[in-house]
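Title: Prediction job returns without error message
Component: structure pipeline
Severity: low
Priority: P3
Assignee: unassigned

Description:
Job completed but the reporter wants confirmation the result is attached to the right record. Sequence as submitted:
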Amino acid sequence: MRIHHSLLLSIAFLTTSTTGFSLLPRKASFQSITGTSTSTFKDTTTSSTLVAGENRFVTELKAIATPSSNDEKELDVEAIGKYAMSAGVEMVLLTLFLRMLDFGMSPERGMGELPLPAITAIFYALSLKSRVFNPLNNQRPDLKKASTEDKPSKGFGDRIMPKWTPPGVFFPILWIFINAPLRAYSTTLIYEVNGHVLCDPTILCLMLHLTMGDIWNTINNTERRLGASVTGVATVWTSVWYAIYRYYEVDPLAGKLLGLTGVWITIAAALVTNTWTLNLVNEKLDSLLPLKAVGSESITKFS
């Protein structure tokens, strides 16, 4: 009888343990498990040991599955400083790059100007790869990696997205075949009007917009600060519409073409904001400013 009774106890324990593990993601399941365990073993001598062991096991799993809500946060001043520093570095490098091209095409030195298709190609490349001038890690989401690996790529599939989010393949098509050509051609029009000067105040407005976009990519994709990402995309939105305004002043057609990219940035800003509202941190909206745990190091790093 004792052997038979012990066998029944073992089966009951394994059944409740297996059920608890399979329902781990659901918080309410832990409470029902504890109650089941108590009622199953309350009339046996061995019950106190088994229930204590299982409750301790469940408690440990809850601690792993549920992030602590008591962690104190503080403003990540180092991150803000690095964002500002990287913006300054990128703008200085972009300005020097364009100035060197102007110097190389100086008529006073008997050097010929680059043909217009080459000028368009330069701004097309800058529209896609301006981040090479930024010291932060602002890698874009890897769509191919995200679609072939179980682990989500940063910035893609690693957060709850709104239902109206376009398919992932839409984004590279938009940037490569629509946004970048519009930026490049509209800037070429400015280049033609301003006397063939690349390092021009109007063109530098677009460079500022590219810089804001590169820093936003670090915040959103690399660091996954969804609240600060909303603040970041606001700077991207503001900078693109300021560039559109300046382009329109010089050449209305250039302003209208660049304005089409502003429409997309507006949609993207709405998407980022909606994503922020869907991904709560400890049942609260993530901070609009970069935060870090008190006493910990900043996650913002130079590449």
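Comment from assignee: result matches the submitted record. Residues 1-54, 56-70 have pLDDT under 50 and may be disordered.
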